[in-house]
Amino acid sequence: MKRILLLTAVLLTAMVLQSQNIFFPSKEGTQLTYENYDKKGKPTGKVMYTIKEVKKMGDDMDITYKIEILDAKEEQQYIDEVTIQKRGDQMIFDMSKFLNKAAFPQQEGGAASAMEVTGNNMEMPLVPVPGMALPDASVQISMKMGFINMKMSANVTNRKVEAIEDIPVKGRNFKAFKLTSDVNSNVLGVKVNAKSAEWYAYNIGVVKSENYNKKGELESSMELVDIRD
Questions:
Q1: What are phi and psi of 222, to 5 degrees?
Q2: Between the CA of residue 27 and those of 55, 63, 94, 208, what are the distances in Å?
Q3: In 3D, which of 26, 11, 60 has the Cα closest to residue 205?
Q4: pLDDT tops 80 at residue 1
Q5: Other beta carbons less than 10 A from residue 227's beta carbon
């Protein structure tokens, strides 16, 4: 009986959390700034996400971000947009939109090249539970640059909710869900197998991420360094 009552309490708590929180902010104008680091902890650039538009359809929601990529000298490299969707009890990431313009260089003068993107969405539950396995995701991109055909593919597998942890970032503490995955990519015939760990906090999104090589050695990381709303 105690176990049944405990399970009921956990489920009710999860339902309350789900109704009140989503991963990622939902106020137009909110800006999140992330710092990228190499394996030695040296800054290599920044990424700025600014909420451009929020569309609400009942309990569902589309959040469109403007993305600005800056190099180590804080010079702008490119601008893009991405939309994250809330559908029912899931947050949905369009893998093609995340990688579309970042994956390949543009032609001279900024003209877009002929590009074909296929793949499936990445999903994340609003109430992750440690030990939960998450669906795989993939994307395939092909593009022509003059006489050159360029191709890339990425598969995100073995996605899992590892734990709930308190993560200190730039003087602030976040209660975050740790998600891990294997990332297998193929860029112009060069295969890379890596592992990823990401920490998600409610109403913020990613607060920290780390990428490791196949030996488990840290290759790069990213941290949230500023929030403005």
A1: -145, 140
A2: 10, 9, 20, 21
A3: 26
A4: no
A5: 14
pLDDT band of residue 60 (cuts 50, 70, 90) is very high
CA dist 167 and 95 (Å) reads: 26
pLDDT beyond 60 at 98: no
Which helix (H) or strand (E) segment holds residue 13: the answer is helix 2-20
The structure's pTM equals 0.83
C-alpha atoms less than 13 angstroms from C-alpha of 162 in its C-beta half-sphere: 13
Percentages helix, strand, coil for the chain (3-state, rounded to 5) are 10, 60, 25
22-228 fold = YmcC-like fold (2.40.360)
Q: What residues contact 226, with CB distance under 8 A and at least 6 apart?
A: 31, 32, 33, 170
CA pseudo-torsion sign 171, 172, 177, 183: negative
| Pair 24, 204: CB distance under 8 Å | yes
Contact status, residue 194 vs residue 182, Cβ threshold 8 Å: yes
